[in-house]
Amino acid sequence: MKFKMITVLIWSILVIGPPIIAWRQLSIVAEKNIFETIIEFDNKFQTRDSIEFTFLVASYSTILTLILGVPLAWNLGRYKWRYGTFLRSLFTVPFVMPSILVAMGFLSLLDWFEVLFGINDSQNLRFYLLLLSHAWFNLALVVRLCEPILSTIDSSYEESAFLLPMGNSKFKRFKNLWLPLLWPNILASASLTFIFSFTSFALVKFIVPTKRNLEIVMSNQAEWAGIDIPALGQTPSEIILASSSIQLLTIIIALAISSKLQSKSFGHQLSSLDDKRIDVSFFSKRGLYIITMLILIILPLISLILSSFLIRNGGSISWTTKGWSAAFGGTHSPTNMYQALYSSIKYATISIMISLPIGFMLSDIINQLERKDSILAVILDIVVMLPLALSAVMVGLGVLVGIIRTDPEIARSWWIPIYGHIMITTPFVVRVLLPAMRNLDPDLEFSAALLGAGYFKRLIKIKIPILTHSIIVSSSLVFAISLGEFGSSWVVLRFTEFTTLPVMIGDILSRPGFDPLVRSAANAAGSTLLLMTLILFICVEKFRPVGSGGDF
Amino acid sequence: MLICKGINKTYSQKILSDFNLNVDPGEIVALLGPSGSGKSTLLKIICGLERLDSGEIIFNGQNLENILPEKRGIGMVFQKLALFPHLNVNGNIKFGLPQESNISEISIMLNLLGLKGFEKRKIQTLSGGEAQRVALARSLIAKPKMILLDEPFSSLDTDIKIILAEEVKILLKKLNISAIYVTHDLSIANKIADRVVYLDSKKNDKLNK
């Protein structure tokens, strides 16, 4: 019991401590409270248009994601495809991809458009590409939330609709049967897509570098945030205080809507085990659609790898490995790829070593409280998920202002980036392990207890071996997310010896593009990160427990 | 040996109301009652997996209130058996073996329950009756002073149920272990028990055989 209390206490301090210290410090430096900064927010030159742009991009991206995602979920759920499981896995690849990789994948597509079709780079084209990249990222979300209800729904519902006036045509069945059944799931995925597009950082930073959403505004002001010298720190602190408050409020509202809608889902009430899905061939209209969507998913990734071997010099292109040499040699970045790879793997490994035990204990505590129908289970679940309501940049700012500004020497500590990684990855551990624990027969643990096994023996001999697959899945997820973590590290990292692979890519991409090797080197580093993420994704898919794989 | 005095337990409604029960050393008591009458809840309270609202449980002269389940010396065979799926038959039985005991006790127990040759078998490959025997062996090897059986034969055919009930009775008598056997089947209760106690969900009346 003491152990569990300590775990909850550590997590609560980790989650709540730095943001509160940060907000207080920002408020002191800005000499204003949160409400005053929000009211004056639009008068600041740096923030003009940023709110409008943030909401606009998030709304358009959400609409585009639904336009592409709902038909995809429909076709995957209502029809039986050859290699169906593999197909579904492929469509969930984007969810584990680091955002900086997606940005690079779409940027490299821009090059190919120009090389192959003569389409010139323009602000408009980049804006549409940004929306498409957000849709690419969030397609998996729509599929994950809508496809299960479509694939497991009792076939008698549709059969009876066939025979009734309100369901005797395809359109009527869609309008009167499917839409009313699906809308909570569709809107829940829309709310989550809105959140992810609202807090998009790497995609906006690199695809539309002339535009600023709230994340970019905060990141741009990070350098002087919370510094108690009025001339330097006042305006940045004011801007960050207002931006973070507006963002947090929006995210909390969207999360609450999503959670409420998911609880209204009809999925669990309508499912049936009979599988009457119709077999469809890839050589059909539907097949063509699925293949087109597959190409959309794979294209940015293949384009990224190919572009790492491509150098564009004016109008000419050449195939070369110079980009890879530049990345490994570190000629276009403050550090070389060996060093960045080492830092990334080191931080990802440490993240597993910390996030996994904390996440395991938190899941165990929530699970036991749930069994007792305790309201504390809900409260603890919200506290655990809190970091997901903060964006990566906000987590980074929390560390920067809440920890580093208290003693600048801390910035030199090798462990400082780990905080952000743990905050961001632990909720994912809980989201994987908690459903697996809920599926575990409580009698197994009771039975072990009655055979004389204490808490740790039960943990080591019963729970961990039975949950091995889920533990491997969550470890792989932690490793993948930590490897690709960009927002928090970009804000926090001040010294090159700690530079991770995504930050190295960000450094290269931030250089002026006159040198033709710049993009090539970034693409080479990105391809390395992509291959590592794909290996981890295969690991996740291989070990995902059947029917109890958790929320991811 | 076991004295339950004035046990009360309420969830959303009253499950056990001022319930009393005594079990003598070596005695087998069958607890009979309809679904929802609190039979399984009572077993969980006795072995410490559930807390009682009020009342007392005295076991071998000791009040069990603040004693952890693993320290009570009471074994239990669950309705769904709760055999550990990641361990084989040997591993499951070995889990119950006290640290100070000799490993050879496992083969004695396997012989006793007719499970010789099953050591390496995976739990998933066992028949219903075999799985029951493994669950019983695992509980008995821990040398409990009392064993609680929560409808362990409910999923079996009637013929096998009766055979197993008779075997269990002989075994418990041989090892002089007292037991509470929960069931809603009167014929099995009569077969296995020295005494039958009827548990009514409304009044918690007792009807002794």
Structure description:
The complex is a heterodimer of chains A (552) and B (209). Helix content of chain A is 74%, strand content 2%. The longest helix of chain A has 35 residues, at 337-371. Chain A has 552 residues and is mainly alpha-helical. Chain B has helices at residues 39-47, 89-95, 105-112, 128-141, 158-175, 186-192, and strands spanning 2-10, 14-23, 28-32, 54-59, 62-63, 74-77, 146-150, 178-183, 195-198. Chain B has 209 residues and is α/β, with parallel strands linked by helices. Chain B has six helices and nine strands; from the N terminus they run βββαβββαααβαβαβ. Mean pLDDT of chain B is 87; it is low at 204-209. The longest helix of chain B is centred in the last third of the chain and has 18 residues, at 158-175. Classes of the chains: A mainly alpha (552), B alpha/beta (209). At the A-B interface, α19 and α20 of A face β6 of B.
